[in-house]
Amino acid sequence: MKRYLVAITVLLIAVVSRAQDLSEETLLRAMHSISSHDLLEYVNIQCDEKYQGRLTGTPEYQECAEWLAGEFGSWGLTPAGDDGGWFQWFKIPYTLVYPDCGLTLHVPLKKDGVLLKHYRYMTEYMPGSTSGNGEVTGEVVYAGYGITAPELNYDDYKGIDVKGKIVLIERESPVNPSAGAEKFTPWYEYSFHQYKLANAVEHGAVGMIYNYGPLANPNNGYHENFVYVHVGDTVVRDIFAGTGYDHSTLVREIDSTLKPNSFNTKKVVTVKMSTSHFPDGRGSNIIGMLPGSDPVLKDETIIIGAHLDHLGLCYEMIPGANDNASAVAVMMGVAKALALNKIPLKRSVMFLSFGAEEQAVVGALEYIKRPVMPLEKSVLLNMDGVGIGHSIRAAAGTNYPILWSFVEEANNRYIHRPVSTGYFSNLGRPRLDAARFLTAGVPSLSFSTYGSANYYHIPLDNTDIIKPEIMEDLSQLLFMTVVRMANSPEPLRK
Fold first, then answer.
1. Domains and CATH numbers, the chain
2. Contact (Cβ atoms closer than 8 angstroms) between residue 407 and residue 397
């Protein structure tokens, strides 16, 4: 009898062992079904001219969203948007920029006359993505950070007259998030692009030269007839030339003393913008689900996030291959592998592709306001710019060591890429979808990649810079991470 029990025990152990081996084999087979060729094709599709750069609110963005929802449906995901559909809708105004734009410096000659210096598109200036339509010529007044904050005893507009003139403004604020919450928080609202533009309008300026890039960025407000452009070092240097000020030294002094130093540069520029504004735009998030099987754990949700949108036309199409077609492609790779291989998941897994990340992270905020699954039972694995380089990093792994442990274990066991993390304070204005979730108390990691050429918010962010191998590795890494998370007997949140 004893020998019989021992034999049965050995047999059961062998069966369990074979089952575990089969499970691992199944997972590996599913993981390796994720192909870099498929992922690159997903990037190519999103960057096609027919989608016109995927600016949220435009018909072209929604056509791309329909394509993504169609892929989700073909793999067997469950729609989880409004009214049982794929889309979670929200209002989003948008602006289209046309080619007849420019920035010109009027250089007086020693003898009568003026030399016109026309700045080059993309390398020296970029049109303001939410600029009003029209042309203005005026004196340039340097107005520091463009901030009026009486409670902080700080006013960049004090002692200067900008009515009918064009202001040159710095991005951010004289105190930045690295100073810590106590020092930075009072400056938080003043760091927003929308505030700076509105404050310039309120003080009577007719245009703005924004020292930001030069790059395109639809994350700003719209004021009819107020025109603006983004510029870089060349334009700033030309405007400061002959004023007696050194730009870098002046900014350092403002930052260190917290005392404005605004002045009339006595330079004259012309800003010309050709735009149309659409105040009644409508955008969407795209939401697909793989419901969990456990009667208790299915209410807990692992969200895989990646924004679908980019910048549209400014005035050339900006494809957004790395930012953020790459991340949507990786999301799709994970979704397809899980769904078609019918991988058992105790917790629910959501694939949430955000709209309007580039327009003040509105899509993520809409989800926070109207969550499909309880936020208090959700975690987020977000991706933004994951198609370049050779290394992977994630914001906030130090904040959330439980989540990070799954990533680290999966990488050490299966992928073996350089992977790093750190602490994320989330003090500055929200620039990632994950920032909205962190503010709402949802544990979140936000992945990016690095190590090769990258072009941010300009037309050169195209498929030529994409490295399919890093997308494949990240997709496989997240596949294994999600499977382990979804089936873990231990809680994902403290």
1. 34-89+282-486 (3.40.630.10), 97-275 (3.50.30.30)
2. yes
